[in-house]
Specification:
mainly alpha; two-stranded parallel sheet
């Protein structure tokens, strides 16, 4: 390389000119890309409010998580036969998620105790994952049991970041920007970063299984530094108190105002029952996502559809799900915050109808449709849930509410994924189970979601 550099800078005139031209072109393209990204992240007052910094930080977070996902998936799933892979994935869920289920009730109260250190909490989650990625790089090839505690640590740190990020967004809203639109921009940045990091991680994996983890280390170290560039106002936690996520029966219709004023325990806030119904609906869609991810991964690897190869079948489903998620995020930004309850109910109905269609007419087209609609429904419903928490939960309790909702949704994904692993590899049976998961969520949430919202509006006088 040194010889080439000397040849370019001190060689004959044409070679030197060509080298300088290439260097200027690369530098110009990089500068143009940076300017375009900056204009996008800073648009709509996001630069002045500090939301742009959070958008960039979330992109870094998503890219690092994708690198770790590629490293683990290549070891746990793709490198072994299907039967052994199902056992490894089941072991991964058990070893990592069982402790996480025990830790989940602790995450929210722990973050409630550090309302003044949100930037530090984000930085710690980034630095922790950087250190764990470096540790896993030495053991990822063997895929031994020692890999799973490190994976658990990555999962907990990632979810802690997600909880803090959700609580920070309302503090960085630009003027005339709704929470749904702001969350859409943050989420879309993460999706774009994931799309860029995936092929980069794949190329690094061609060098060796540990190299995506080295890439994750570098990304998370950068994220650690970027966390402290957030505005100081995100660390303000004046007057915050934990939320009381109680059942709809305890917080019921006309008694809502009275129970808001008389919380079950001092310092806790009663949450509107419509938020709880929205969480139930989101849990069913998140369970559907976990189910489709693992069930279709094994099903299409063993039994490709439509005469397609296994790799192509998996690619079609992955692209459909990713495109659906991105479209749902963009659609949520366009819909703004109009009727989040109706948006969630509509998303559930569309997901249920598509899953039923795939159960009756199982084919490559219907599977791709289920993946796409599930992605759209999950994105729209999550954005709507965030908007409802922001609207219904007082600012003093939002961190706690986001913490509890995030951990509940993560556990719902695991339950769906576990069902997907246990089922026989039969497409019709699988799509029937997928439809049942959504139908359960529809049955327990939609009537209360819409009915409670109408009644609560009349009781509290809100439009």
């Amino acid at each position: 390389m040194a010889c080439v550099a000397r040849a370019v800078t001190s060689g004959p005139g044409p070679i030197r000119k060509a080298g300088l031209a290439v260097g200027r072109a690369v530098q110009g393209a990089g500068s143009a890309l940076r300017r375009r990204i900056r204009r996008s992240t800073h648009a709509g007052g996001a630069g002045e409010s500090g939301l742009a910094k959070l958008i960039e930080l979330h992109a870094v977070n998503s890219a690092g998580d994708m690198m770790i996902t590629i490293a683990l998936a290549s070891t746990v799933f793709f490198s072994v036969p299907t039967g052994e892979a199902r056992g490894r994935v089941a072991l991964y869920l058990l070893v990592t998620m069982a402790p996480f289920a025990l830790l989940a009730p602790v995450v929210g109260p722990l973050l409630d105790r550090v309302p003044h250190g949100r930037r530090a909490a984000m930085a710690i989650s980034m630095l922790g994952r950087a250190m764990l990625a470096w540790m896993m790089a030495d053991i990822v090839s063997g895929a031994g049991l020692e890999l799973y505690p490190a994976a658990l640590g990555v999962l907990v740190a990632s979810k802690a970041y997600g909880v803090v990020r959700s609580a920070v967004v309302p503090r960085l809203l630009p003027g005339r920007t709704t929470l749904v639109k702001a969350n859409s921009r943050v989420t879309l940045a993460g999706l774009l970063a994931t799309a860029v990091a995936a092929p980069v991680g794949g190329m690094l994996h061609l060098i060796g299984p540990r190299w995506p983890l080295y890439g994750a280390f570098v990304i998370f170290v950068g994220g650690t530094v970027l966390s402290f560039s957030l505005p100081h106002k995100v660390d303000s936690g004046k007057g915050e108190a934990p939320a009381q996520l109680t059942s709809g029966e305890r917080v019921h219709l006309g008694h809502y105002k009275e129970q808001q004023q008389r919380a079950p325990r001092p310092g806790r806030q009663i949450v509107d029952p419509s938020v709880l119904h929205a969480l139930q609906a989101n849990a069913s869609l998140r369970a559907l996502s976990g189910f489709l991810t693992l069930f279709l991964a094994f099903l299409l690897r063993e039994h490709p559809v439509g005469g397609l190869s296994a790799a192509f079948s998996l690619g079609v489903v992955a692209v459909s799900a990713g495109a659906g998620n991105a479209f749902g995020t963009a659609l949520g930004s366009w819909l703004k915050a109009r009727g989040p309850e109706r948006i969630i109910a509509t998303a559930l109905m569309c997901a249920l109808a598509t899953a039923c269609l795939a159960a009756v007419w199982y084919s490559a087209v219907t599977i791709a449709a289920v993946a796409a609609v599930a992605g759209i429904a999950q994105a729209l419903s999550k954005l709507s849930l965030d908007a409802m928490i922001q609207r219904e939960v007082p600012e003093i309790s939002r961190t706690s509410a986001f913490a509890r909702s995030e951990t509940a949704l993560q556990l719902a994904w695991v339950i769906g994924g576990a069902i997907g692993i246990l089922l026989p590899l039969n497409g019709t049976v699988g799509m029937s189970v997928a439809a049942s998961l959504v139908a359960l969520g529809f049955a327990v949430s939609v009537r209360g979601l819409l009915g409670t919202r109408r009644t609560m509006s009349s009781v509290t006088g809100r439009a």
